[in-house]
Amino acid sequence: MPEILQYTFMQKAFIVGLLVGGLCPSIGIFLVLRRFSMVGETLAHVSLAGVLLGILWGISPLPFALLVSVLVVFVLEKLRSVFKNYAELSLAIIMSAGLGLAVVLMGITNASDTSISGLLFGSIITLSNEDILMIGLLSFISIFVIIYYYREFFLLTFDEEGARLTGIAVDRYNYLLLILTAMVIAIGLRIVGALLVSSLMVVPVATSLLLSRGFKQTLLYAVIFGILAVLVGLIASFYLGLAPGGAIVLSSVILFLILLLGKRIRP
Amino acid sequence: MKEKILHLDNVTFAYPGNTPILEDIELEIYRGDFFVILGPNGSAKTTLLKIMLGLLKPQKGTLKIYKSGIASPHMGYLPQKASFNQGFPATVREVLEMTSKKAALGNNDQYPQINAILEKVELQEKSNSLLGTLSGGQLQRVFLARALLNNPQILFLDEPVNNLDIQAQNELYKLLHNLHQEGLTIITVTHDPDSILNYASRLLYVDKKKITEVTKENWGVV
Amino acid sequence: MFNKYKIKLLLVFILATSLFLTTLACTLIKPLSSRTTVSQSDLPIIYTTIYPLYDFTKKIGGGKVTIINVTPTGAEPHSFEPTSKLLADISKADLLLYNGDGIEPYFEDLLTTLQGSSVLMIGTNQGINLIKENGVTDPHTWLSPPCALTIGENILEALSQVDPGNTEFYEKNFQAFQDNITALDQDYEDTLAQCQERKIVVTHQAFNYLCREYDLEQVPIMGFNAEAEPSSKKLKEICQLISKEKIEFLFSEALFSPKVAETIATETGATILPLHPLGSLSEKELQGGKEYFGIMRDNLKSLQQALEYKP
C-alpha cells in the first residue's frame, strides 16, 4: 500500500475528499448554467458566519451553519423577485453581510488562528469519525435528491418559463436547488474551506463545458474532473507539504487550462 | 358540421392597475382551424393568446374549452422568447427526452414517439447535435417538437418566425401546414402577414381593444 | 437628492448598525482587568500585553495598582487585534508593560500610535538572552523560571519609576515572588534531572526557553505563532518520529484546538497530556484560581509523566 494511504488521517481525507469532489460539480452544473455562479460564493460566506456564530453560542457548528444558510436562501429568493433586474446586486449585498459578520465574529470569538484558517482554507487532517458520518449522511441525501429530481432541475435550468408552462412548480424547485447548494457548501467547507468551496463547484463544470458534449456527458465529466482535482490536490499536499484546499482548486484550474489549450491546438 | 373547440364569451381583460386592453371579446375556434391573429405591435395579441391558453384570467366573461369524445384537448405552446441560453450543453434528443416525463425515467416506449416527432419536424439528422450548433430555424423546430410531445390537439404559437430568414420562415410554415393537414388545430400570432396566409383558414385582426374577423376576400388588403 | 425621508432612513440605519455592533462587542468581549470598582482612578493604571506580565504585575504591585491586560480572557495572543479605542485608553495610562519580541502581532502599530503620548513603555525581556531561530526571535521567555525572574525584576523597576512612593511595598512583594521562583526552579531542576526521556512533542513552538533551561528537546507540530494547520506532510513526519523514537506522550495546549494533537494520537497510539504555554488564560481557568505558579507546577506534573520520571 502506498505510503499516503497508510495513515488513517489521509484515508479519511480521501473518503471525504472524493465525495466532495464529485458532489460539488453535480450541483455546480445547475448553478453555472443558470448564471448563478455567485450564489456559491455568497452562501459560502454566509455559512462561514453561521459556523462562527455556532462556535460563539456553543451550538454544533455544521448543522447551525446549514440552518443559517437555508434561511438566507429564502431571503435570497425573496430579494430576487423584488430586485428582478439586479439579481447580482442582491447577491453582493448578502455576500457582504455574511463576510462582514464573519470577520467581526472572528475578532470576537477569539478563535485561534488554526480554527480560523481551518474554516477559511479547509481542515482535512482533523476529520473525526463523527465528521465523516455527518458528511456521509448529508452527501447521501444530496445525491439522492439530485438524482430523483434530475429531470426537473434540467428543465428548470434549460428553460424556466417553458418548465413553468409544462406544470413544473418552478419556484419550489428553485428553492430546492438553492437549499441543496447550501448543503453541499456546508459539506465542502470542511475540505477546501469557505474561500474555495465555490471554486470546486464551478471550475470542474467550466472544464467540462469545454468538451461540448450533451448534458449527461457534461455532468459526468464535471464529476470526474472534480474527483480528479481532489485526488491530485491531496497527493500534492501530502508529498509537497502544500495546503490541501489550495492544491485541490489549483489542480482543477490547471486541468481547465490544459483542456483549453488542447481545444486551441486541435479545434 | 364544424366542431367547436374553444369559446371566448364576452371577455374583458386588463392587467392589474391598468385600463382594459381587450373589451367584450367574442371568439369561437373550431377543430381544424388554422387561425392567424394579426395586429400592430402592442395590440394585445399575445395577451389574447395567453387568455385562450388559460395563462391569464379575464376580469369579465369566460373561456370555455370543449371536451370532445376523446379527451380534453391538450394544448401545445411555443412562446415568443424562450428564456434559453444558446450555449446550453444538451443535444436535441436530450431536450425532448427530458421533456417527456416517461422518457426521462428511462421508459423506452417513448423513443418511437420522439423519433416520429423528430421526423415530422425534419430534425432526425440533427437529433444528436448540440443546441448551440443549430441555426435559428432549426432551434425553433426543436421548440416545436417539444410542444408536440404530449400530443396536443391545439398548437398555440406566438410570433414563431420573428428572427428567422425567409427560407427558414417558409420551412417552418410548411411544417405547420403538414401538421395542419394531419388534423392539428393551429392558432398563431404574427405581426407581419406574409406567406402564412397561403396556409391559414381564418384571420383575426386585433386593434384598440377589439377584434375583427377578416373574411378571405379581404385578405389581400390586410 | 437628499429629502427628509432619505435622511431619516439614513439616521435609522446608522443607529441600528451601531446598536447591533455595540451589543455584539459588549456582550461578547470580556476584558481581563484587576479593576474592581470604578472609584480606583487614583491608583496608577498599568496595561500589560500578555497574561504572564499581568500575573507578575499583580503579584508585585498588589492592591496599589490597577492592571488591565490588553488581550481579553480566552483570546489567543498570537492572533489578537486591539481596537483603536483600546489603543487610545493605553495612551492615557501610566505604564505599558510589553514583551515586544514577536508575541504581540500588533506591536508595530502600538509603537507608532503611542509615540508622543505620556504613557511609559517598558519592555520586560530586557536582560534575557533571547533565542533566535532562522532570524526570528522566540518570545516565550516566561516559561523558564529564571527568565521569569528577570521579567519580574524589570516589572519591579518599572513600578518604582511610575510610583516611587510605594517602592518599599513593591520590593517586599517582589521578594515573595523571587522566593516562589527559586522554589519552582529547584523543583523543575530536580524532577527533570531524574527523567529518562528528553524529547517533548508539543502543539506549538512555545517551549524553547524551558527546554534550554532544563536540557530538553522540543518537537513542535506548529511554528511559533501557530497560524495555519500543519500540512499532511508535516503530520506524517511527526508520526514517523513518534514511532521511530517510541514516544508515548504528546502535549495539547489550552487555547489551541486539540484536534491536530488528537489526529496524531489516534494515528500513533500516543497519549495526550496538557501543557499550558501561559500566553493567555480562559475565563474558566481564572475563576478556578489558576495562576502562573500553579500552572507551571501542573506543567511539571505532565512533563514528569511524559518523560518517564524515575527517582
Characterise the protein shown here.
The complex is a heterotrimer of chains A (267), B (222) and C (311). In chain A, helix 2 (37-56) packs antiparallel against helix 10 (197-209). Chain A has 267 residues and is an all-alpha fold. Chain A has helices at 8-33, 37-56, 61-82, 87-109, 113-121, 129-148, 150-158, 160-165, 170-192, 197-209, 215-240, 244-265. Chain A has a single domain, classed as Orthogonal Bundle (ABC transporter involved in vitamin B12 uptake, BtuC), CATH 1.10.3470. The longest helix of chain B has 16 residues, at 166-181. In chain B, helix 5 runs parallel beside helix 6. Helix content of chain B is 27%, strand content 25%. Chain B has helices at residues 45-53, 92-99, 101-104, 110-120, 136-148, 166-181, and strands spanning 4-13, 22-30, 34-38, 60-65, 75-78, 154-158, 185-190, 202-207, 210-214. Chain B has six helices and nine strands; from the N terminus they run βββαββααααβαβββ. In chain B, strand 8 (202-207) and strand 9 (210-214) form a beta hairpin. Chain B is α/β, with parallel strands linked by helices. Chain B has two domains: 1-73 and 153-222, P-loop containing nucleotide triphosphate hydrolases (Rossmann fold); 82-152, no CATH class. In chain B, the strands form two sheets. Chain B has a six-stranded mixed sheet, sandwiched between helices. In chain C, the strands form four sheets. A five-stranded mixed sheet of chain C has the order 1-3-2-4-5, covered by helices on one side. In chain C, strands 6-7 form a two-stranded antiparallel sheet. In chain C, helix 5 (145-162) packs antiparallel against helix 6 (167-193) and helix 6 packs parallel to helix 11. The mean pLDDT of chain C is 86. The longest helix of chain C has 27 residues, at 167-193. Chain C folds into three domains: 1-25; 28-187, Nitrogenase molybdenum iron protein domain (Rossmann fold, 3-Layer(aba) Sandwich); 194-306, Rossmann fold, CATH 3.40.50. Chain C is an alpha/beta fold. In chain C, a hairpin with a 2-residue loop joins strand 6 (132-133) and strand 7. Chains in contact: A-B, A-C.
